[in-house]
Amino acid sequence: MAKSNSIHGNAVVGQSGGPTCVINQSLVGVIEQFTASARGKLFGMRHGVAGLSKEDLVDLTRVPKTRLAGIAQTPSAALGSSRDKPDVDYCQRLFEVCRKRDIRYFFYIGGNDSADTARIVNEVAASNNYPLHVFHIPKTIDNDLRVNDHTPGYGSAAKWVASAFIGDDMDNRSLPGVKINVVMGRNAGFLTAASVLARVARNSGPHLVYVPEVDFSEAQFVADVQATVDRIGRCVVAVSEGVHRAGECALAGELDKNAPIDAHGNKLLSGGALGDHLVRLVKGAIHAGRVRSDTFGYLQRCFPGVVSKTDAAEARKAAQTAVKLALRGEPSGSVAIIRTGNRPYKVAFERTELANVARKTKHLDLKYVNKAGNNILDSFKDYVAPLAGELPKIELLV
Amino acid sequence: MAKSNSIHGNAVVGQSGGPTCVINQSLVGVIEQFTASARGKLFGMRHGVAGLSKEDLVDLTRVPKTRLAGIAQTPSAALGSSRDKPDVDYCQRLFEVCRKRDIRYFFYIGGNDSADTARIVNEVAASNNYPLHVFHIPKTIDNDLRVNDHTPGYGSAAKWVASAFIGDDMDNRSLPGVKINVVMGRNAGFLTAASVLARVARNSGPHLVYVPEVDFSEAQFVADVQATVDRIGRCVVAVSEGVHRAGECALAGELDKNAPIDAHGNKLLSGGALGDHLVRLVKGAIHAGRVRSDTFGYLQRCFPGVVSKTDAAEARKAAQTAVKLALRGEPSGSVAIIRTGNRPYKVAFERTELANVARKTKHLDLKYVNKAGNNILDSFKDYVAPLAGELPKIELLV
């Protein structure tokens, strides 16, 4: 809606899409900030818009503080999440429930599809002359929301991926060979690129990094591995699940013609097929001793205890900002995280139009990719290090 | 060798087999305890017996304390590991190098194969009337060494697996469906069974647990999943990589007829084939919505920052004990961890014969398996909880 004075009335909050380690920080940020205002009741949608459409709501107005503290530390979406992709009719139904429950504030935590849902709900409310403050709160480990420098959830996933590579590189030093790790990232290579944080010592891996922003050639991949093994006697590889041959869809999907397709038209890329395929390629072409793969899979997004403090704090702050903006009557929008400094690292939380973050996604800037297209430059560390926060320390003996 | 007074002379230490998060605690335990005695020099084998056979040794006599502290915290084998399986001729060669370097103390950190190597080296030395104190120091995330209540490395891996399941169960609550997690464990189900530590809240998973000690039936598996989904609307499964149909080898190996075979005659079970196969089975048979799998793979053994304090302390203490026994002239042997109390948890470190832990392995006691063979009883928590140590806390909202 257009800018107006804030209004009394109830609020609703939901969580959507793949869960993260800090999406509950955002939920708790909404709960604390809204309930402190005493504007009305706060309802939680069970499983996002799916719950709202069925009026499956939880009253969040009086959750004890100590319980909120525990929930904020708990990974995954405490209200339940949803993969529904609402169209205009679906949003019309959501709006009807809001009107029925006297809901005047609508907070939705999620990625670009969630921003689009918020955008449509906002338009339906406006066309009905119903004052509804709709705010989207960013979340995605993929880090692919436009306008945002980065998104809540990414920093913790980056920390997990970096930690995994630090340990796996030590493993590979002790039993040398080729190790291929498949990292989440259908369209954007941000999370795979975060693996370069593991380059903390002499000859540390990953030695090769492949992202979906660059066409993937299996022949080149094998040659790259061979060259690395020739140079240092071993090779640790980071590869995005979304890598694809020139002009083709993701290789992981191509390998399994029967892979299921979700509501968003995306073919399922999880499972071990890509890693197993790359292992066979290497084994068939070169003599590199041990050749193994791991597909990091869903562990990357909800592993408790490996959380970036910066990420957790920003997830909370983004949500608090959304509530503050809504309560003071700002027009509906999304909260974007803008980096305002790197030494020391500083961010600002700014309102942006819902349409700016809805639907389309952002890609990894090619300035971070080396010329050969088989690695991420160390300059990416400057971008990602403050987001991932402190990493485990290692010490080499030999 | 038979009991004798301790002797001056040099020592050698090596690390063998799959690395763990705490095998360097044992290495540092040997270094600190032996160098404090000033009996002679301490050499490290590069990549276990492979390095010793080539005289590829590192002088460990004067590593600074602060560096040792860093190495102890670093996962994986700092000296490098080895998968070599020495026979008597190979051990004869190892003995020759020991004689040449005036090595009188031989410490080898590893599993049952390493204990067997130590046993043969000890016999070769004895038959040459060469006084050599040979001590094996236990290590394996598989937890399958005989005599030992449990082995260093297992507690940290158990903590990692439990943490992964805690997060993954929250993920599965937020986006309900069937989730199948494949856990390391070729012959023994200890690590897979540790997943029951994740049952921390109402209806927490894993809801089904399959270990190699029980024959696996794919038809029964699908029926078990169906029953769980019917009951609570979702299902989280823990399955050992080594599960097998009655009278057959591991299913993971059966699925890939071309899987490579290592020096120990073991077929490679890593890779995503088993998880992908089980997903297809479930999808083909029942309507359970989202069905996904993850294969935890090598991440289970060297993930930094997710380490059990008890495990780290015991790995150090087992090594110190081995050095003390050797220095006071006890006959060659292995150090076994014996549990002497559970409330409070207490252990003793005792010398045992090398032959007692060499070659053969231990299996999970069937008293921990439920009657249907598709779950691990909560009584296993009493066994594993003190080993894994503190776990992440979670809080449910709904």
* Assembly category: homodimer
Shape of chain A: elongated
> What helical percentage do the residues of chain A reach?
25-40%
Largest interface: A-B, 67 and 67 residues
| Coarse structural class of chain A | alpha/beta
Number of domains of chain A: 2
* CATH level 1 name of the largest domain in chain A: Alpha Beta
The fold-level CATH name of the largest domain in chain A is Rossmann fold
* Tally of individual helices of chain A: 14
- Low-confidence segments of chain A, ≥5 residues, pLDDT <50? none
Going by CATH, the architecture of the largest domain in chain A would be 3-Layer(aba) Sandwich
What topology does this entry show?
The structure is a homodimer of 398-residue chains.
Chain A: E1 10-15, H1 23-37, E2 42-45, H2 48-53, E3 57-59, H3 65-73, H4 88-100, E4 103-110, H5 112-127, E5 133-138, H6 154-174, E6 177-183, H7 190-193, E7 208-210, H8 218-232, E8 235-240, H9 251-254, H10 273-285, E9 290-295, H11 299-302, H12 309-327, E10 333-342, E11 345-352, H13 354-357, H14 379-388
Parallel strand pairs in A: 1-2, 1-4, 4-5, 5-10, 6-8, 6-9, 7-8
Antiparallel strand pairs in A: 2-3, 10-11
Helix pairs in contact in A: 1-3, 1-12, 4-5, 6-14, 8-10
